[in-house]
Amino acid sequence: MRNVYKIAGITVLIESLYERIHRMSVDYLTSGIPEYFIKTTEEDIEKERNLSAQEDIERGREVRAFPPDYLETLAVYRLFVEKVTGKDVILFHSTAIEANGKAYLFTAPSGTGKSTHAAIWRRVYGERVRIINDDKPLIRFEGGKATVYGTPWNGKHRLGANISAPVSGICFLNRGTENRIQRISGGEALPGLLGQTYRPEDPESMATVLKLLVKLCSDVPMWRLWCNMEDSAAKLSYETMTNIDK
């Protein structure tokens, strides 16, 4: 199968072995002329299988067996991100929320509670809040400004939309019994940002990623939040992070 999609403002023709990638990308279909072409192979799928197994071993988990059509979706995303790094695009593992026209990103290791915290924002603030992407959004620098985009790769709960918003805050989420938030410097934030960003193997592309992360640190407010999973935690982060722009 093959179709053209527009992701993060970039058109790409995807030719795949399986249908799954096209089902999950239907909201991104476009009639535009593709700037890039991605064609997956069995070797790409096998590479993703090996990378997933390696990650499970490193984390002390039993190695999971994923179906090939799912692994192909990961391969497509990896190939796409590696191609568009030169357009000042990075993949940042986080939950991206849009509130009042601006984007706020929560990042943490898997299982910490990013999705739960975002769901509380939705519950407390209703239609003022939308989920841009619950897992793997793209950040693109356009005119020197960072914008976060929804993508078809939006987590196991499939939460997200084909929307974008300017990045107005990034928060490192930690579980805690008491709710507390503090502003941190770009220097403090950089190692954590790097750990949650896709790092291409190509040295030139990796240099671009580092340059973009440094700019992100200098331009965007960074926060560290310790929180429980109650409404008061969402109220604290919302009121603190959104009020800085007023």
Detailed description of the structure:
By secondary structure, the protein is α+β, with helices and mostly antiparallel strands. It has 2 domains: 86 residues, no CATH class; 155 residues, Alpha-Beta Complex (Phosphoenolpyruvate Carboxykinase, domain 3), CATH 3.90.228.20. It contains 7 helices and 12 strands. Strands 4, 5, 6, 7, 8, 9, 10, 11 and 12 form a 9-stranded mixed beta sheet that branches. Strands 1-2-3 form a 3-stranded mixed beta sheet, with helices on one face. It is globular. It starts with a strand and ends with a helix. The mean pLDDT is 93.
Topology diagram in text:
Elements: E1 2-7, E2 10-15, H1 20-24, E3 36-39, H2 42-58, H3 68-84, E4 89-91, E5 95-99, E6 102-107, H4 114-125, E7 129-133, E8 138-142, E9 145-149, E10 164-175, E11 180-184, H5 186-195, H6 203-219, E12 222-227, H7 231-243
Parallel strand pairs: 2-3, 6-10, 10-12
Antiparallel strand pairs: 1-2, 4-8, 5-6, 5-7, 8-9, 9-10, 11-12
Helix pairs in contact: 2-3, 4-7, 5-6
Produce a short descriptive summary:
This protein is α+β, with helices and mostly antiparallel strands.
